Amino acid sequence: MKLFSxxxxxxxxxxxxxxxxxxxxxxxxxxxxxxEIRIHLEENxxxxxxxxxxxTANPSDTHLMELFFFCDALRRQEAKxxxxxxxxxxxxRQDVQHRPGECVSANVVIxxxxxxxxxxxxxINLHDEATExxxxxxxxxxxxxPILAEEIKKYIGNVSTDTVAVVSPDHGGVERARKFGxxxxxxxxxxxxxxxxxxxxxxxxxxxxxxxxGDVKGKTAILVDDxxxxxxxxxxxxELCLERGATKVLTAxxxxxxxxxxxxxxxxxxxxxxxxxxxITLKDEQKFDKLVEISVAELVAREIA
Length: 305
Prior knowledge:
By secondary structure, the chain is an alpha/beta fold.
């Protein structure tokens, strides 16, 4: 096995390597002044299974091109198989045509991954599981909600359906919230509360929480989602939960794909703690007191060991 790290999240790559007990393989990543990228492998990879770790978060386009170039370099050097480990799969939310005239960007990215020569792709909590069906190469969608559920149980202490309400911040995330609830409670005999949300398709990152279906009164409400960008959806949902009698609100969100203002908004919001993972590099200016980041390194290591 050869394990390579792209530039998107080298800290996570090192943690995965440590969990596997291997050394990260060496490669030179050069960015020229005209924004072009060059990848140069510094190790012999002939007849080796090679893994490239590269979340395709902001800047998504740059990180995607780097990933493609890694695959091309490895195949040219006769690697046996090339695997992509993409902890955060960029463009996953652009998986349908929301308006006439739009592209379906997720499908385009998948076609690139297939045609460039990856043997298999690993991701963590893809936005919509239906997108798995678009892949014509082996694909694994790793679920990180169990490690978030475990951390939240430690934080809360007593977890039962009488004291905790699992809440989906929109109708599209009901199944996601249900699976998290299965992990949190340890059984499937529980209900999910749902926030009715209206999104403004003409303006990005604008939505409004309209109503809440389900009982959160006197309970700790846990908002479950796959990613945070602006934070608006979760903040509005938290306010609605508290209006309906929740004692406090936590969030369980896999990817912190933060926009510029999200950290400060979340810190000043009614949300008590934001539980998330390290699939995306957390910049210093994005850190805030309410944020709890849990590593997915061992989760990934177990999949590829």
